[in-house]
Amino acid sequence: MKPAETTPTRHILAADIGGTNSRFGHFILSPSGALELVASVWLATASARSFPELLETLADTGFSLPPNQADIAVFAIPGAVLGRRTSLANVAWDVDLDVIERQFNLAYTACVNDFLAQAYGCRLLGNTAETVLPGTMNPERVQAVLGAGTGLGKAALVPLPRGGYLALPSEGGHTAVSFIGEEENAFAAFLCRQTGESYARGDSVLSGSGLVCLHQFLTGQRLSAAEVGASLTLESPTAALFARLYGRAARDFALTVLAAGGVYICGGVAAKNPIVVRHPAFAAEFRNSPTLGPVLDTIPVRLLRNEASGLFGAAHVAQTLLSQAR
Fold it and tell me: Is the whole model's pTM more than 0.90, yes or no?
């Protein structure tokens, strides 16, 4: 009798490439299907002139999984991933998977949008998320994922008719932000002068650089994002206005995808400065609707502060691809 075949242990190289930091993870996929993160490294994205140079830097750190020993590598990148070559949105790089495979002798590679990975990561790590607005997260209904970091990312988690779920990426952070009232519109004009762009995008408003610009507009002080974050209090005008804009973005996206299953907030800005979503201005703006206020009152919001969520999401994509390949 022929012995049953066993699924081997697989080694996954997962990456979450951000405008500020690039995170790499070595995951083990066991025969039982369990994913385990065994090592991770954070590198400054700006330390490399190209994505291949960043991978060379990774090898120089003594990382536990050399690229050529990975069964699959999945790179989550900020940009519209429509093929095997992609330009990054907030980094002056191109990622060409065919070139990467040849240069680093990789067996199997894939690129995904960074917030598609974040969405899967939120679902995997959602039990560790903190409550911003109460209610029960319902994975059987659409859930929204958004987060401010170097830019603003958005994605949706959609339940499938036969069970399971699908993450849908977007480039919603590049759409125009709505401003209401004299002060907000004055800030929009100030921001456009600072960026040289014709309109204020989500990426330039709800981001670390947006927080810096907002604080400068309100106070005249030009501080780093970390310095602004350290100064935020419930009485801070910067905290109140940033929270209001964040709450509006979360509300508008929740209504766009009808996220009756809840909203996940992730990204470095809220992870480091949770006051921007815990401030009363966030909740007030999130629930403010002349027509659908009662619906918004029922939508829970959770904050996921684990900044490895994108790595877990990329590893989940790798697991799915390996399963399909079998």
Answer: yes
| Sequence-ordered strand ranges (E) for 160-281 | 165-169, 263-266
d(CA 265, CA 296): 16
68 secondary structure, DSSP code: G
3-class SS of residue 161: coil
- pLDDT higher than threshold 90 for residue 8: no
Both tokens of residue 53? 């140079």
C-beta of residue 186 within 8 angstroms of C-beta of residue 164 = no
User: Which of 276, 280, 165 is CA-nearest to residue 225?
Assistant: 276
Query: From CA 156, how far away is CA 169, in angstroms rounded?
Result: 7
Q: Which residues pair with 36 in a beta bridge?
A: 28
In terms of CATH architecture, what is 10-113+309-325?
Answer: 2-Layer Sandwich (3.30)
Q: Domain segments of the chain: what residues?
A: 10-113+309-325, 130-303
Q: Give the β-pairing of 72-77 and 109-113.
A: parallel
